[in-house]
Amino acid sequence: xxxxGTTAAPAAVPEDRAGSRARGAAGHDSGSRPETVGDGGSVxxxxxxxxxxxxxxxxxxxxxxxxxxxxxxxxxxxxxxxxSPGNAAPNGAKAVAEVLRQQGVQVVATGSLQETHDQLQxxxxxxxxxxxxxxxxAEQLEPLKEQADHMVLLEPGFEALRALAPxxxxxxxxxxxxxxxPAGCRLPGPSRAGEITRGGFSYRGGSDMCFAFETPGxxxxxxxxxxxxxxxxxxxxxVLSNEAIVQAGNAALALNTLAATDRxxxxxxxxxxxxxxxxxxxxxxxxxxxxxxxxxxxxAVGIVAxxxxxxxxxxxxxxxxxxxxxxxxxxxxxxxxxxxAQAVNHAADNLxxxxxxxxxxxxxxxxxxxxxxxxxxxxxxxGRARADLERxxxxxxxxxxxxxxxxAQELQQLEKEVMHR
Length: 421
Hints:
With about 425 residues, the protein is an alpha/beta fold. The protein has helices at about 1-30, 45-55, 55-75, 95-100, 115-120, 140-145, 160-165, 190-195, 250-260, 290-310, 325-340, 345-360, 370-380, 385-395, 400-420, and strands at about 105-110, 125-130, 150-155, 170-175, 180, 195, 200-205, 210, 215, 220, 225, 230-235, 265-270.
């Protein structure tokens, strides 16, 4: 049984030696040129290929960095808050602030409650409070009434009304349908304005109401004076905007309302002014009662699962695997397996299959050619009898090791005859 393996071995040995020579040459090159990589290219060429592959993303990253740098160099963002004295957009109120300054009124914009208290230390100051998101509590607003000589609440909420405008109640929004609202009151400021455009919120109560209109619950107005006469509730905030200030008598109403004194403190509340609780809230008190026991139960189940699935099965054993196996060794190993199993006919089939493959390739037969086609082609090219070729290439079953060796020799001799014709 060793003879068949010996017969096929010479075809694999030159290939193994060629591989050894190639590995030796590669090792010599790598020793003389340390910058060479596995595919034969230099480190610099590999770096250029990678840069070329990622060029699109690198350019995109540079563009994003450039946009961020330009935004940082542009300086602080422009004021875009509604009815802010520094906002020049249509929704801002910069036009009113500038006209008041031209009329000799000092306009001071504040953005925090503490800054507002500091600015109100000076005498004869009008305070405009704009808290559109209702950040302030009544306790924070009440001290402002004692400091300001005159106060204007711009579209106030319930807390501001309760603290700074006694007797005034919210009455909803001003209907957009209809013409301008006439003053219809005895107050000098609204009387000089004559009429204003619609929009904003309405209120009722107080000592006087201007620009009133009928509602199902009674008359309501966007301009109301509190019971004590110290606070003006201005629900028509749109009359102060840059977009609507030039319409109807909006400008006259804004100037007569905000220029009551020589100094105007324009306070817009923000989230930084929200009251902070003296004692922090326990987050566990906000959860349902079943959360804690269920959490403890899940934690216990997780710990048990870790002990169950994480038990040790013993240390890992590392075993080095062969990197290179010579072709001759594989052939000899397969021959030993055939010999130990007494698989004589199976070995003969393998020898015949290899011979048929090589003969078909030499005779340029198509890939799907059958063994009968190969026998016919060999008969035409070798001059041998077809019956003899059928026996050698297709039909003979050796049965013994001696006959297998003889068949291997016949196959080898047939290949030589066909290859050298």
